[in-house]
Design goal:
The chain is mostly beta strands. It has one domain (about 15-130): Sandwich (Jelly Rolls). It has no helices and eleven strands. It has strands at about 10-15, 20-25, 25-35, 40-50, 50-55, 60-65, 75-80, 85, 95-100, 110-115, 120-125. It has a six-stranded antiparallel sheet with strand order 1-11-3-9-6-7, with no helix packed on it. Strands 2, 4, 5, 8 and 10 form a five-stranded antiparallel sheet that branches. A hairpin with a 2-residue loop joins strand 4 and strand 5. The chain is globular and about 40 Å long.
């Protein structure tokens, strides 16, 4: 494997992740990053068993919002919930948070985040097996 290459060694990516059941069978955690230029976004987090028997996953407690063009992240906390709203903010129009595999209920192996608008990227990390990017297992 190429030295210094993060993809396959450190992380895998689902670039268009909204509404997609993403298994955590090959990764320890998944971080979501969403962007909508100066807009309001709503998010709903669910867990499932291979895409079936989905239910809300109320683990969103700590998030970070920041400028989509880079800058300082601001910590946001809320009571554990399966939903989150990012209200219109001309500066902080990006949000990021992580779900760890151990936060899923027994027997559940997939995470699905649905965003009402904008761009949503999922980054799977803490990969259980490191591979050349061309040999990565499917993320969906």
């Amino acid at each position: 494997m190429a030295q210094g290459l993060g993809l396959g060694r450190v992380f895998n990516v689902v670039a268009a992740a909204s509404g997609i059941h993403i298994p955590l069978t090959n990764a320890g955690a998944i971080s979501f990053v969403s962007f909508l230029d100066a807009g309001t976004q709503s998010f709903t987090l669910k867990e499932s068993k291979d895409g079936a028997s989905e239910q809300n996953l109320a683990v969103i407690k700590t998030l970070y919002k920041g400028p989509g063009v880079g800058g300082t992240w601001t910590k946001v906390t809320q009571a554990a919930a399966a939903t989150f709203d990012l209200t219109t903010d001309a500066v902080n129009d990006c949000v990021a948070f992580t779900v760890r595999g151990e936060q899923l209920s027994d027997g559940f192996n997939c995470v699905e985040l649905t965003a009402s608008a904008g761009i949503l990227v999922a980054i799977l990390h803490d990969l259980k097996v490191q591979r050349d990017p061309a040999l990565l297992a499917s993320s969906v």
